[in-house]
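Notebook p. 47: complex prediction with NAP.
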Amino acid sequence: MRKIEYFGIVGGDKRQLETALSIQKDGYNVNICGFENANFKIKDLKQDTLNNVISKSEGIILPLPVTRNGTSLNAPFSNSEILLNNEFFELLKDKKVFCGMAEILYKSDLPYNKNNIYDYFNREEFTVENAVPTAEGAIEIAMREYSGTINGSKCLVTGYGRIGKILAKFLTGLGADVTVSARKKEDEAWIKLQGYHFANTNNLPEIQFDIIFNTIPSTIFNARTLAKTAANAVLIDLASAPYGVDYNAAKRLGINAIKAPSLPGKVAPKTAGEIIKNTIYNIIEEEL
Ligand code: NAP
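Predicted complex, structure tokens below:
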């Protein structure tokens, strides 16, 4: 028996619409709200009022991040603000709620029941799978910004976490000459075993890279490191805040540094939506 039959998707971007479509395709009942201004794919889904959508549903899927300002739902396609007020809180009270980056909800005065709120962004499988569209999006930017081909280019990937691992593999597949940086000895061992050149993140070499992909959320590319970086390099910063680049210094030095956040939703909303769906199914299977 399925633990939830009725899903309500409230707010979000293209990814949540793709999540809704994919869940509906699996045979569940899906109602959506907060997408009035989305002019794509909406006709295949049932839209209703906030009250009806939440009342009719057992599981409510909220956006990633659930809110950007702490006061209203992150609903870029809604024709009105969906406030995170007492009324909204009361509607959600007895529902199973799935959302991304829930912590910000708990900062409000409303006594959200953490036992009924499941954060899909905190799940490891979500982060790992999301690294694939992120890496593809990074390569798309590189193809656009670098005047040569990826094949034969000298690439540096800083950081050997989830995104670093996948990106290094994809770049190698395209025929790039790949160097990966890390700070841990075990990462150094893996990097070398995978056949990449190794660099120590704390002491990056002066080698002239064509394209640099940063995945480290710390200002690795400060003025000192940037001074050692080729002025014609393309530097793509994939890390979240506090980001990996001193952008003022990059500008002064004439380095093309590109901040590239939220790539999965931009380059592959369908896959990003399916990753959200699969993670929610895993939560339902394991935790409900
Ligand atoms: P991750 O698995 O945690 O990997 C981060 C890497 O950075 C690790 O190799 C880590 O090394 C290294 N690192 C962290 N702090 C460091 C420091 N101060 N000095 C040197 N190395 C440091 O993270 P991920 O999943 O690959 O994600 C990387 C970043 O991209 C995160 O900021 C994430 O939020 C962001 N992100 C961006 C997008 C996008 O669309 N642009 C999408 C998803 C995620 P250790 O293992 O030694 O700590």
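Notes: DSSP finds eleven helices and twelve strands in the chain. The longest strand covers residues 177-182.
Next step: compare against the earlier run before touching the bench.
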